[in-house]
Specification:
The protein is 45% helix and 12% strand. The protein is α+β, with helices and mostly antiparallel strands. The radius of gyration is 19 Å and the shape is elongated.
Length: 153
């Protein structure tokens, strides 16, 4: 089943009533990992609301994303302590290794790369997290090694 069919199925599980806008978008986010332009258009038509209203809701809530997100989010801390100890180079290495820029998801939908401001483990700076795992005292070589040995899997 393609994205459009899945979205149609989700939409038809709701009544054509604008008050279901947020619920519908949350379901689409869960199913597709993001809200595409096509999805926003389809939802606007289905609920009889303007596309700009759908867009406004889709961009207001942090759980909703217009960009496709990977199943796991790798975060590089760019807080002061981490920055001073070279987190930018770690981020660069991860971008190179994963073949994406910060804010993007890998082609296979596995990972999204993000930055964060202090994860509260400054003594271990620079820090990278992935889900519940965190990796401290990072440097570019260690970052490359984490990717090679599948530490983010
Ligand atoms: S600045 Fe990175 S953990 Fe605090």
């Amino acid at each position: 089943m393609g994205e459009i069919d899945r979205i149609a199925e989700i939409m038809h599980s709701y009544k054509q009533d604008p008050r279901y806008l947020l619920a519908l978008l949350l379901d689409i986010q869960e199913s597709e990992n993001h809200i595409s332009t096509e999805a926003m258009r389809a939802v606007a038509r289905y609920l009889g609301v303007s596309e700009s209203r759908v867009y406004a809701v889709a961009t207001f809530y942090r759980t909703l994303s217009l960009k496709k997100k990977g199943r796991k989010i790798i975060r590089v801390c760019m807080g002061t302590a981490c920055h001073l100890r070279g987190s930018a180079a770690v981020l660069h290495e991860l971008e190179k290794g994963l073949g994406i820029k910060v804010g993007e998801a890998t082609e296979d939908g596995k990972y999204t790369l993000e930055t964060v401001n202090c994860v509260g483990a400054c003594a271990l700076a620079p820090v990278v997290t992935c889900g519940d795992d965190s990796f401290g005292r990072m440097d570019p070589a260690k970052a490359a090694e984490l990717i090679t040995r599948g530490a983010f899997e």
